[in-house]
From TrEMBL:
InterPro entries: PBP/GOBP (IPR006170), PBP_GOBP_sf (IPR036728). GO terms for molecular function: odorant binding. SUPFAM superfamilies: Insect pheromone/odorant-binding proteins. Keywords: Signal. This is Uncharacterized protein.
């Protein structure tokens, strides 16, 4: 269940960032079109369902277009730290971004789950 909450949290946070890398509704629409994400799939991102390949690719697209994954698949941790606030717990924040920094790269859609898993870490 924590994993599904983390997915919803990641999607929400990607939409709430406040920098140049902001994930706008336009970016979300572009990613839906690029990944052929259906309206049903879009709704189930916030439900307790497993991630299909399409959903993984959609989330990867959001991270890329948001400026959190570089063209080479490298995670841009500093951009995430600037924009995505996990919560007020500094110990948890350290663990989450330590985990994110250990994800070597997200070159394919399946690897995005490693990134999502970082947001499920407890303090």
């Amino acid at each position: 269940m924590w994993k599904y909450l983390a997915i919803s949290l990641v999607i929400t946070l990607l939409g709430l960032t406040a920098s140049e890398g902001r994930v706008t509704e336009e970016v979300k629409q572009q990613c839906r079109e690029e990944t052929d994400l259906t309206e049903e799939d879009s709704r189930s991102l916030k439900a307790n369902e497993a991630l299909s390949q399409t959903k993984k690719c959609y989330i990867k697209c959001l991270f890329e277009k948001g400026g959190y994954i570089g063209a080479d698949g490298k995670i841009l941790v500093e951009a995430m730290k600037k924009d995505i606030i996990v919560d007020g717990n500094n110990v948890r924040l350290e663990k989450v971004y330590g985990c994110v920094g250990n994800v070597e790269s997200v070159k394919d859609c399946d690897k995005v789950t490693e990134l999502i898993d970082c947001f499920t870490l407890k303090s």
